[in-house]
From TrEMBL:
Domain HPt: 23-116
Species per Swiss-Prot/TrEMBL record: Minwuia thermotolerans
PROSITE patterns attached to this UniProt entry: HPT
Keywords attached to this entry: Phosphoprotein, Two-component regulatory system
GO molecular function annotation: protein kinase activity
UniProt keyword Phosphoprotein, yes or no: yes
Keyword Phosphoprotein assigned: yes
Residues that bear Phosphohistidine: H62
Cited InterPro entries: HPT_dom_sf (IPR036641), Sig_transdc_His_kin_Hpt_dom (IPR008207)
Gene Ontology BP annotations: phosphorelay signal transduction system
Protein name: HPt domain-containing protein
């Protein structure tokens, strides 16, 4: 188990800050936008890995890391940070292993956000 496995899928304090005083649907709209962007980033990471473009993997992982942290998805953010770091350091085997684990982590994150914000 790595350190990211011990993090919650959703970070309650970040989500509370995101929601603020919103009593409308704005958080749901923001979350839907985040999920669309994150899904595209995960797909781009997988495609870049398939093409062995480690620079593109690192670039996409950096963007995913930042967005996931902003939206309160610490496990996804930490995993993307590890991919970014390993890509930067040229550890192709580590990048490949982490990218292999990324889709399941992404699905877990997506399910958690949808259950909380988009189920109604």
């Amino acid at each position: 188990m790595n350190a990211a496995d011990t993090l919650d899928v959703l970070d309650e304090s970040t989500l509370a800050e995101l929601a603020g005083d919103d009593t409308g649907d704005i958080v749901g709209v923001l979350v839907a936008g985040f999920l669309d962007e994150a899904r595209e980033r995960v797909a781009a990471i997988e495609a870049a890995m398939a093409g062995r473009d480690i620079g593109a993997v690192g670039f996409q992982a950096h963007a995913l890391k930042s967005t996931a942290a902003t939206y309160g998805a610490p496990r996804l953010s930490r995993h993307a940070a590890a991919i970014e770091r390993d890509a930067r350091d040229g550890r192709v085997d580590a990048v490949e292993a982490a990218v292999t684990d990324l889709p399941e982590l992404w699905r877990e994150t997506d399910r958690a956000f949808r259950a909380r914000y988009l189920s109604g």
